[in-house]
Specification:
Catalyzes the oxidative decarboxylation of 6-phosphogluconate to ribulose 5-phosphate and CO(2), with concomitant reduction of NADP to NADPH. This is 6-phosphogluconate dehydrogenase, decarboxylating. Pfam families: 6PGD, NAD_binding_2. There is one protein chain. Helices cover about 55% and strands about 10% of the residues. It is of the alpha/beta class. The chain has 2 domains: about 170 residues, Rossmann fold, CATH 3.40.50.720; about 250 residues, N-(1-d-carboxylethyl)-l-norvaline Dehydrogenase, domain 2, CATH 1.10.1040. The longest helix is centred in the last third of the chain and has 33 residues. The radius of gyration is 25 Å and the shape is globular. The structure holds NADPH dihydro-nicotinamide-adenine-dinucleotide phosphate. The site of NADPH dihydro-nicotinamide-adenine-dinucleotide phosphate has 23 residues, from helix 1, helix 4, strand 6 and helix 6.
């Protein structure tokens, strides 16, 4: 019998995804640019060999799949995807579906979707999260494309997706770039989550002078509470792991320079394009950039020294650690609220009709930001799908009120102690600006009118839109 689906690209993600597909009882044809990888993959497939058709040429590969053929392309993002699509196109027939499952920029996905429109072929842009483990045993899958093309692959995708209380973490989210956009924002939120954890770690390490193992204990305890999540869980694990070479905690031996591949930056760019603040993600992306300037930072420390406000002081260590837990929760709420607000604006801009409760639902398991917390977001959006901002839903408003005091105390202590907390501070700034009905932009409007005659609206609605600055502009 023919394969139900095909997959191109047997790298880390592709080979794990292929094994997952095969294991769930779906026959799959596989192809890789370098033939050796295909041979190695098949040789190591063990009991799953029966479900796998290894192919060494594109012709053989296409012929092995049942039409209309869904073909997952899981290769290096960018130009390689265009090259692979071009090489594939002439071998396909009407109705066949190319599925880009890599971390594409959604603008590329929109372009590819449109380019295939008149060819009779269809295109799906599919975000896959969960890393290697997720791909192998159950990722979270965010699909964009025509609904009809999704129905062709729904069964396979449902079988391989992660399950949260039995509910598969896969959904069709909208046309063209919707899936890759949502995956991008997922990654942006992931950047913010990771940065906020790193800042809290910094306070424990450099403020409270705790060892990696001790900090690991703190994260372990938090993972049993409201912060319960995959990222907190692995933070405990990495803090407790020893370096095989030196027997020191491994985190103490790792260089403090963070890499990035682009999805965080894209989130920030799109948020800015849409005019929606995503300050938590911005702070996180900027923090990774500063981290990479290791030599510059070391030179600057020699010239400027560390901030000299004196010792990091806390009166009650246990109470302060409780504050850190609540501060992290508050800041996390800010980052997620921003990410969802960006998606809501994009949904309008690109006519996607993104289903917010469903997005939160398919992030509850499989993906890197999976957590208990996303179940609470699912419930909040299910009750109020069109709410302006997550933080004004009743459940999250309560949570913000319960935790923002702790965030304020933690940010204050860190700032006075000279410890950098750009993401935590950004969340506090966001809450404090967003909840204040009368802000300070009146002065900005006055300045803009003064130097550029831009005009302003008045609080009393009177019909006088320029200030008395002289030169005939006044009321
Ligand atoms: P790998 O580096 O492990 O594999 C890269 C694959 O791309 C190989 O199969 C390689 O083939 C193929 N490839 C590279 N260039 C070309 C080309 N020009 N034409 C055809 N094939 C090409 O990458 P990953 O599996 O880690 O990542 C794949 C995609 O998944 C990326 O878009 C990545 O961003 C995304 N992703 C990765 C995650 C992860 O945790 N690693 C998580 C989620 C998404 P060959 O063997 O011939 O070199």
């Amino acid at each position: 019998s023919q394969a139900e689906i095909g997959l191109i690209g047997l790298g880390v993600m592709g080979s794990n995804l292929a094994l997952n597909i095969a294991e769930k009882g779906n026959k799959i044809a596989v192809f890789n640019r370098t033939v050796d990888a295909t041979r190695r993959f098949y040789a190591e497939a063990g009991a799953l060999k029966d479900q796998i058709v290894p192919c060494e040429t594109i012709e053989e590969f296409v012929a092995a799949i049942r039409p209309p053929r869904p073909i997952i392309i899981m290769i290096k993002a960018g130009d390689p995807v265009d090259q692979q699509m071009e090489a594939l196109e002439s071998h396909l027939a009407k109705g066949d579906i190319m599925i880009d499952a890599g971390n594409a920029n959604f603008r590329d996905t929109m372009r590819r979707f449109d380019a295939l429109k008149d060819s009779g072929l269809t295109f799906i842009g599919m975000g896959v999260s969960g890393g290697e483990e997720g791909a192998r045993h159950g990722p979270s899958i965010m699909v964009g494309g025509t609904e009809e093309s999704y129905r062709r692959v729904e069964k396979v995708l449902t079988s391989i997706a992660a399950k949260y209380d039995g509910v598969p973490c896969v959904a069709w989210l909208g046309e063209n770039g919707a899936g890759h956009f949502v995956k991008t924002i997922h990654n942006g939120i992931e950047y913010a989550d990771m940065q906020m954890i790193a800042e809290i770690y910094g306070i424990l390490r450099d403020g409270l002078k705790m060892s990696a193992g001790e900090i690991g204990e703190v994260f372990g305890a938090w993972n049993k509470g409201r912060l319960n999540s995959y990222l907190i869980e692995i933070t405990e694990k990495v803090l407790k792991a020893a370096d095989p070479l030196t027997a020191n905690p491994i985190v103490d031996m790792i260089l403090d320079k963070a890499g990035q591949k682009g999805t965080g930056k894209w989130s920030v760019i799109e948020a800015q394009n849409l005019g929606i603040p995503a300050t938590g993600i911005e702070a996180a992306v900027a923090a990774r950039s500063i981290s990479s300037m290791k030599e510059e930072r070391e030179a600057a420390e020699k010239i400027l020294g560390l901030p000299s406000m004196g010792e990091f002081k806390v009166a009650d260590k246990a109470a302060f650690i409780k504050d850190l837990e609540n501060a992290l929760l508050a800041a996390k709420i800010g980052a997620y609220a921003q990410g969802f607000a960006v998606m809501a604006a994009a949904s309008k801009e690109f006519n996607w009709n993104l289903p917010m409760p469903t997005i939160a639902k398919i992030w509850r398991a499989g993906c890197i930001i999976r957590s208990q917390f996303l179940d609470e977001i699912t419930t909040a959006f299910a009750k109020a799908p069109d709410v302006a901002n997550l933080i004004v839903t009743p459940a999250f408003a309560t949570m913000v009120k319960e935790t923002d005091g702790a965030l304020r105390r933690v940010v204050s202590a860190a700032v006075l102690g000279g410890l950098p907390v750009p993401a935590l501070a950004s969340a506090l700034g966001y809450f404090d600006s967003y909840r204040r009905g009368r802000g300070t932009a009146n002065i900005i409007q006055a300045q803009r009118d003064f130097f550029g005659a831009h005009g302003f609206d008045r609080i009393d609605g009177a019909d006088s839109h320029h200030g008395p600055w002289g030169s005939g502009l006044g009321a």
